[in-house]
Amino acid sequence: MDPLLLARLQFATTTSIHFLFVLVTLGLVTLLVYLQTAWFLTRKPVYERLTRFWGTFYLVNYALGITTGIVMEFQFGLNWSGLSRYVGNVFGAPLAIETLVAFFLESTLLGMWIFGWHRLRRGVHLALLYGVALTAYASAFWILVANSWLQHPVGYEQREGIAHLTDFGALLSNQAFGMAFGHVVSAALTTGGFLVAGISSWQLIRRTPDYEAFRKSLRIGVVTASLGVMLVVGFGFAQFGYLGDIQPTKFGNEGDKAAAAADFAARFGGSPADYLPPGWVGAPLGFMILIGFTLMWVWLFIPFFFRDWIIRLKLPLYLLLIATPLPFIAAIFGWLVREIGRQPWVVYGLLRTEDAVTKTSGAVMLTSYIGFTVLLLGLAVADWMLLARVAHRGTADPALGRRPDEPLPEPADRPEPVLA
User: Fold this and answer.
1) 300 phi and psi, to 5 degrees?
2) Do the beta carbons of residue 76 and residue 14 sit within 8 Å?
3) What's the pLDDT tens digit per position in 26-41?
4) What is residue 78's predicted lDDT score, i.e. its pLDDT?
5) Domain-wise residue ranges, the chain
6) What is the rounded CA–CA span in Å between residue 111 and residue 53?
């Protein structure tokens, strides 16, 4: 077995799975901020129930998402020692900041939010959630800063075959960063909106006892998804304006592709064809765009909130439920375009993927691939099962935020699923 192919498959598998957790985390924490703010301002019990219910969703996904992130980062030292050695002085700076933000600051604030219910002042407790949201976005910010340097290396110099950071500000103004960050954030909002709308639709289809709560979360999910999908399409198409300049072999015209490939062949050896990305990379791009435009129909549902026609007709609820996985699929397609489209480079124009992989046997790499894949898939399945259990319980018994004097609900009081 080819160690390079196995290493790439392992990274693609683990990163794809982890990325799905990230989307849900960013999307849900944004909606949680709105729900708890509404509860703080209005003091309506429905917002408390929704904050506790979707907060439980968020915590399950966050806990397992952190685990998948740790597993994913092990690969930099295990499978990609050439990359770590070459770009460690540049790549390490934003990753170190992200680690401090995500694994220390964000986790600390989140822990205080979890255990601060009914112990802290309401304003302080809300401020903690705002801190969690800001650090979550900061984490995504620094990850995109690091990834954008791989896409378009700037602010560095090479000394003795190793890249050294010379201009930290150049990382933040990198042409490959700004629109990509907006694209990821809006994708997270789209995913979170459709997830909330889809689960709320399912609850209303099964005639949930807490009609008021899921009617409200359905509205919030649809509006968020509508805004998110417009932004994600806009940020996506905005990237076409500069990608041809910074990555001509990916999105340049045929003349620019040929010239760039010939230049790479002259500098690094081989034939120009070796420096062109796989021809099939256009397929996931096309599917991603198709899904994006398909999801834009969610705007049509907003007028149906008048007199609750969206719920009475039932068909919109089924459509929203069916559409729930589509943002996840589109996100994976987008990741494939961004990462595979720059092949055969791990650092575009500087370090080839074959020079970045750890020199080891195919048997060792196969063992690593199987082990990592089984572990990540197990975490993903566990996440799905736990979230399904939380969704099934509804708002009847969210353990998060339970008051000390609040009795546990009797089994007979818990809602059973009702067929539509």
Assistant:
1) -70, -20
2) no
3) 999 999 999 999 999 9
4) 81
5) 7-157+167-243+279-339+358-403
6) 17
